[in-house]
Specification:
The chain is an alpha/beta fold. It has 2 domains: 249 residues, Metal-dependent hydrolases (TIM Barrel, Alpha-Beta Barrel), CATH 3.20.20.140; 57 residues, no CATH class. Strand 6, helix 7 and strand 7 form a beta-alpha-beta unit. Helix 5 crosses helix 7. The longest helix is centred in the middle third of the chain and has 17 residues. The chain is elongated and about 80 Å long. It starts with 20 loop residues before the first helix and ends in a 7-residue tail after the last helix.
């Protein structure tokens, strides 16, 4: 059985993700994954690079983000009450979803920022079209309620998200060998049976290979201003937060075959297609001339005005500069 990673962090999850996008795409191709998602914390910095590299490697790119959902309103910013938002994975299905994710990310940074870029459920309800939501890691609202022992609150939260996203909402199970995750997974399985919300298996990857765990640990020290020898510092539980192969994930979740299969079903729903060439203003050129030809004529006239004698060095520089502009398709812009 194949598998698709839907919860991943790259170098663009600043000082938290240690995976280079090129390495992530290469790993997906080498292990036979048909698709992969990129879900950096609160940002879309790596989206275009990931999309382009995955396409070039024959991997379907799924753009996404691990967003922060305010415990109250994204506009409220008062002490501890609003400092620790819940996590939620959003995945782009189509162009409408991509535009909505851009909108949500922009609002989170420009209006909702309080320790982290935050949105809220009201914003999700307004901008949910074209998006798939996963309940996220132990930092997700449903998982947090289960850890608190409040199954009723967990169910209420799950049903709220289901009302927003409908059949595009999934309960996310993870297994990094952590006791808390085992407890949460039991609760999520029971919640899935009760509500009909499907499960999906993920591995919260923050580095590409298992042996990269040490480098990632040092990165966390840089983030938190601590040293490796500090016993009280923030650290990951173990070295299981890497891009596991489909075989590893199938073995890890052998008791949840539908949750593994759902990664492929979600990937099938995601089919974002867009032209990622720069959008530049159009400039009308004289009849009978092309943009490249008109730019060359104007640039040549300017060259002769500035340099009474055009030496081979000047001409070579002129041709080099002009060729770069033309090859990039920027002639009309210039």
């Amino acid at each position: 059985m194949s598998f698709v990673h839907l919860h991943t962090h790259s170098e663009f999850s600043l000082l938290d993700g240690a995976s280079r996008i090129a390495d992530m795409v290469r790993t997906a191709a080498e292990t036979g994954m048909p698709a992969m998602a990129l879900t950096d914390h609160g940002v879309l910095y790596g989206a275009i690079e990931f999309y382009s590299q995955a396409k070039a490697a024959g991997i379907k790119p799924i753009l996404g983000q691990e967003v922060y959902v305010a415990t109250r309103s994204y506009s409220q910013k008062e002490g501890r009450a609003d400092r620790d938002p819940h996590h939620l994975i959003l995945l782009v299905k189509n162009l409408a979803g991509y535009r909505n994710l851009i909108m949500l990310s922009s609002i989170a940074h420009l209006e909702g920022y309080y320790y982290r870029p935050r949105i809220d459920k009201e914003l999700l309800a307004r901008h949910h079209e074209g998006l798939i939501a996963l309940s996220a890691c132990l930092g997700g609202e449903v998982a947090s309620r289960l850890l608190e022992g409040d199954a009723a609150a967990a169910e209420q939260a799950a049903l709220e998200y289901q009302r927003i996203f409908g059949e595009d909402y999934f309960l996310e199970i993870q297994d990094h060998g952590m006791p808390d995750q085992a407890r949460v997974n039991e609760g999520l399985e029971a919640l899935s049976r009760k509500t009909g919300i499907p499960l999906v298996a993920t591995n919260d990857s923050h580095y590409t290979r298992k042996e990269d765990a040490e480098a990632h640990d040092i990165l966390l020290c840089l983030q938190t201003g601590t040293v490796v020898s500090d016993p009280k510092r923030m650290r990951f539980h173990n070295d299981e937060f890497y891009l596991k192969s489909p075989e590893e994930m199938a073995g890890q979740f052998s008791g949840y075959p539908e949750a593994v299969a759902n990664t492929l079903r979600i990937a099938e729903r995601c089919d974002l297609k867009f032209d990622n060439h720069p959008l530049l203003p159009s400039f009308e050129v004289p009849a009978g001339e092309s943009a490249d030809g008109y730019l060359r004529r104007l640039a040549g006239e300017g060259l002769r005005r500035r340099y009474p004698e055009i030496t081979p060095v000047i001409q070579e520089r002129f041709e080099t500069e002009l060729s770069v502009i033309q090859e990039m398709g920027y002639a009309a812009y210039f």
